[in-house]
Write a structure and sequence with these properties.
Blueprint: H1 3-33, H2 39-60, H3 68-94, H4 99-106, H5 109-117, H6 126-142, H7 146-149, H8 152-172, H9 181-201, H10 212-239, H11 242-245, H12 252-263, H13 270-304
Length: about 300
């Protein structure tokens, strides 16, 4: 491998690492944070602070302030992905949905992404629709487990969050977003403002000053979960296939479940473990199936010839 090829590959590897492991850990960190912070307030502070810091850094590096049209596009994506997508997950974890279960539910994003891609005329194969059907069965199975059966509102919030994130991800590639990292900065600033306004109108307020764990959780979410991971996701959406950009969906749940069990005292019932396996198989089928099975068909044709 040449030096130039290595240099072009390193950002891709770093971005995938950020999505796979850092983003996977944020579910557990959110659970720690909402023990000290109101959910919408914490999510709003997370994105507003991260966006402002990243925006200031980029301005100092000579980046241009986005045009009005770019701010509007960034606002639309920021609201869908961060305000609704991440905000509702934070609220659900505040409602005692375990962090590992939340991550398993969010793993359905690639399935919904496939469905929304039809709005822009993207063809889908029978194999992909089969993956969607299997994934929906996994969601139903997961909701029969002990962690969600008594918390239907929490499950509904995460499902709505996944739908919003999937739609925003598909739509983002067709919007005039700011270039580079400025897109993530603008999206986080607007999403943070929307979440803080929602926090205000919903009557959230601090009953006590958050402890050290609360501030550490917020700091981790600002720096690692937002500035680094979300910038990495925006980078991947613009540089690789959607299948690669959304491949975090079958790694995050494993990371989140292990952290929740190891450090948070969470547990999954046998039915929920089966549901996790079903959903991950569905996501793998949708994102990688056409490449694996397509390659096999090509090889068979070549052998026959």
């Amino acid at each position: 491998m040449t030096g130039s090829a290595t240099r072009s590959l390193l950002p891709l590897i770093a971005a995938l690492f950020a999505l796979y492991f850092i983003w996977g850990s944020t579910y557990f960190v959110i659970r720690v944070g909402v023990e000290s912070w109101p959910p919408l307030m914490m999510a709003g502070l997370r994105f507003f602070l991260a966006g402002c810091i990243l925006f200031s850094f980029l301005l100092l590096r000579g980046h241009k302030v986005p045009a009005l049209k770019q701010w509007m596009a960034a606002g639309a994506v920021g609201v869908l992905l961060l305000s609704v997508g991440n905000g509702l997950v934070t609220v659900a974890e505040h409602m005692q949905v375990p962090s590992g279960i939340a991550a398993v539910m969010v793993a359905t994003v690639p399935l919904f992404t496939l469905c929304f891609s039809r709005l822009w005329g993207m063809p889908n194969s029978r194999l992909e629709w089969t993956g969607v059907a299997i994934g929906l069965f996994g969601i139903v199975l997961l909701n029969t487990g002990s962690n969600l059966v008594g918390n239907p509102w929490g499950a509904a919030l995460i499902l709505l969050a996944s739908l919003s994130w999937a739609f925003g991800s598909v739509w983002s590639s067709r919007l005039p977003l700011p270039k580079g990292l400025m897109a993530g900065a603008a999206e986080m600033i607007i999403a943070g403002v929307v979440l803080l306004v929602a926090s205000r109108f919903s009557g959230e307020h601090l009953t006590a000053v958050p402890g050290m764990s609360g501030f550490l959780a917020l700091g981790y979410l600002v720096v690692f979960g937002s500035m680094i991971a979300i910038s990495a996701y925006m980078f991947l959406l613009k540089t690789v296939r959607p299948a690669v950009a959304t491949s975090y969906a079958y790694v995050n749940p494993i990371v989140a479940v292990l952290l929740g069990i190891g450090f948070g005292g969470e547990s999954l019932s046998p039915v929920e473990w089966v549901a996790l396996g079903v959903i991950l198989c569905a996501v793998l089928l949708v994102t990688l199936g056409k490449f694996v099975f397509g390659r096999r068909k090509t090889e068979i044709k070549e052998v026959k010839v």
